[in-house]
Design brief:
Largest sheet: 3 strands, antiparallel
Helix content: 40-55%
Number of strands: 8
């Protein structure tokens, strides 16, 4: 895949901001482009020749190309000409508070095998064998994507069954904590760990380097051969995610979107303790902005960045 150019004012984030303020979260793409013209100053690369017909500049092509990432990340739905921002897209604006953070997250989403707003896959796909004739006709990359999708579908179905079983257990016993533990473990081993492995390089075989790291955690990783004192922190607390899974139990597409919406920061154990001491271990502040969990603990999430090691 050719390297895509960087843009001076990162309209990739601005377009989601415009959508978030549009009535119903929906706007015509051409109207979004017209609004963006007054929001940033294109550089020479931005104004380069377009790749697609009927476009006037490269930056417009870039946004058209970004739609694939937006859809796969679950941030946008709708046709190519009429975009609609999703609740997950609004969450992304909260979590990725700088243009570069959001651009990095959008680029990472291209590893997803299929757009998450596509029609749900038949659950039989999870267990049905792939015929040798079909496998032989696929390219290596497509084979890998098909295998990943089959396993993902199997895990989604298994997690839905587990959530339903845990709900029945809670109803019968009123022992919610006992139900949360197996669900938390299953989510990690059946979903998050696979996502970590597919997200790119892992530090110490565990921590995704493509996640946003606090400066202190990045410094510790760069100066120590051991991974002690570093933790993976859920931007949206575990208990909030589990509640969203319960609420979307009967909709496999939305259920998967909740699983895919997991966003992680990597911070030090001391920073994690600060968040817990501030009272936000398992809650989001009244502002509704999950990043305020960090700000109220004295951390600045805008300084977080993917881990860069030699």
């Amino acid at each position: 895949m050719a390297t895509r150019p960087k843009y001076s004012q990162a309209p990739v984030r601005d377009i989601l901001v415009l959508l978030s303020h549009a009535e119903g979260g929906t706007a015509d793409f051409s109207a979004l482009i017209n609004a963006l013209r007054g929001m940033f100053t294109p550089n020479e690369t931005d104004l380069g020749p377009p790749s697609y017909k009927n476009n006037e500049a490269a930056w417009i092509d870039y946004l058209i190309d970004c739609r694939t990432s937006f859809v796969r990340a679950g941030w946008v739905t709708g046709s190519k000409s009429l975009w609609t921002i999703t609740p997950r897209g609004r969450d992304a604006l909260l979590v990725y508070s700088t243009p570069e953070q959001l651009r990095t997250a959008a680029d990472q989403s291209r590893r997803v095998a299929r757009p998450v707003d596509a029609e749900p896959i038949d659950s039989n796909m999870a267990t049905a064998p792939i015929s040798s004739a079909v496998v032989g006709s696929l390219g290596e990359g497509i084979q890998e994507a098909a295998t990943d999708e089959r396993y993902d579908s199997a895990h989604v179905e298994a997690l839905r069954k587990l959530v339903r079983a845990m709900e029945e257990f809670i109803e019968e016993t009123s022992l919610s904590p006992l139900a949360d533990y197996p669900l938390r473990e299953a989510i990690f081993f059946w979903w998050r760990r696979r996502e970590f492995k597919r997200s790119g390089r892992l530090y110490a075989g565990k921590y995704p380097m493509t996640a946003l790291w606090s400066p202190a955690a990045a410094e510790r990783a760069a100066t120590s051969k051991r991974c002690g004192g570093i933790v993976i922190e859920h931007v949206i607390p575990n208990n909030v995610t589990r509640q969203r899974l319960r609420e979307t139990l009967d909709d496999p597409v939305e259920f998967r979107r909740v699983l895919d919406s997991e966003i992680f920061f990597v911070i030090t154990k001391e920073e994690d303790d600060l968040i817990n001491s501030a009272g936000y271990m398992s809650t989001i502040p009244d502002s509704g902005n999950p990043l305020d969990r960090y700000r109220l603990a004295g951390l600045d999430p805008e300084t977080f960045a993917p881990l860069q090691l030699p």
